Amino acid sequence: MWFFISTEAFVKLILITLVVLNILPVLFGSLWVVILILFLAMRRKSRLSYKDNLSTNPDLFFSPVNGKVVSYNSEEKMMEISVSSLSSLGIYFPCQAVVEQLDSPPNRDSFTIDYNRYNLALRSSTDEKFFIEALSFAVSPRIFVDLGDRGKALACLGYLPFGGKVKVRLPSKANMLISVGDKLKAGQTAIAGI
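RESULT FIELD:
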């Protein structure tokens, strides 16, 4: 033979090559599936509790996102919540409310600092006006509501594709129940009461 190996060794080499080329993709494919499942399980570890026991209380404002309070101003009743790209990324109504104002990013064809920012003005069922500003890190936030839309507490109003920051400005008579460094769960952590 012209390979300077015996026919028997050549057949073994061909068989081993075929086995390796058929088994490696299956092994790598199954390893990839396991890694993907673990990643998705870790990314979506927290789920919203859709129980209506506390969310029907009109005197409470709940956290609109999962995140951590990074700044807090008690005089202006304003807080800034940082949303990690590994946490649940939805933005939810903090109480039963109506969308009164929706400021979307300006021109999507031009790059401006406000490209990834949405401002919402909401009015609660107790006639209190409050504001939510969603600022995304990479991609513009997706907002599903429009002017005049009504939503109950825990109803999804949008999401931050890769995390970001959410600023919440509550009514002046609200009693803040959070402080800097607190970890918040959307729809479960009460952030203020009236």
